[in-house]
Amino acid sequence: MKQKYWVPAIERASLILDLVSEHPQELRLIDLSKQLEVNKSSMYSLLNTLEHLNLLSKDKEDTYMLGPGIAKWSSSYFRQFDIVEAFYREAPDSFNKVQEAMQLGILEGGDVLYLGKMQSESRVQLITNPGMKFPAYASSLGKAQLLNYSKEELLMLYPRYNLEPKTPYTLSTVDMLYENLQTAQDQRYITEAEESALDFYCVGAPVMNHNRKIIAGISFTMLKSSWATKREEATTEIVQLARRLSQQAGYADKI
Question: Which residues form the IclR-ED domain (predicted)?
Fold first, then answer.
């Protein structure tokens, strides 16, 4: 959407950087000119300026890649990124739609360390609060952060193999946990059915950074009686919120 004081040259430079970041060392001046529908003369000026600012580099084949100047901005951005602040800024929209408890947490060893929480005025209140820990294997928020773990990595995390049950439905071994995680590999979320507390269902999703590393997890938690009617919306909202937080952490979503 165009704005009153829009500067087309800056927009074009941004489009160039986006395209080059997606196709490093693949595009020449003529390719960029065609794909972005910018005449070659203007494209030459833009590329030349971006090169001199170290925002682009050109190799011996005359194709472009991002330059070292990008790094100083990205490192500054990631230093200032605060996952808790981002959660409380972005979560209200999803929370208002679903009207169920939301939580944010990070992985600390084999546990989840809760960092943020939003809760409705329901008579049922969660017992976990920011600053508390809970076994990652027994929560969707925790399992979401274990999605990329191999069985060997899970065994390093839980060397006793058997997992302490929180309810009769808690996954009780590393093998069961690994199999459960595998079922969610092609999804952007993972669910939990009374594994952490009886009569509670959850759906969680991972937050990823610019290195495609999972840095946090978020979740919706609700009573079993609400799950049947709210599951689909809660899943959609938690996935979308995770995507927004990941993008703010620098994750480039190619899907």
Answer: 69-251
User: Of 1.10.1740.10, 1.10.10.10, 3.30.450.20, 3.30.70.100, which CATH number belongs to 8-77?
Assistant: 1.10.10.10
> Please, where in the chain does CATH 3.30.450.40 lie?
81-248
pLDDT of 122 > 80? The answer is: no
Tens of pLDDT, residues 147-190: 999 999 999 999 988 999 999 999 999 999 999 999 998 888 99
Task: Specify the pTM.
Answer: 0.70
Q: Give 36-95 pLDDT, tens digit per residue.
A: 999 999 999 999 999 999 999 999 899 999 998 887 776 666 565 688 889 999 999 999
* CATH number 3.30.450.40 given to 81-248: yes
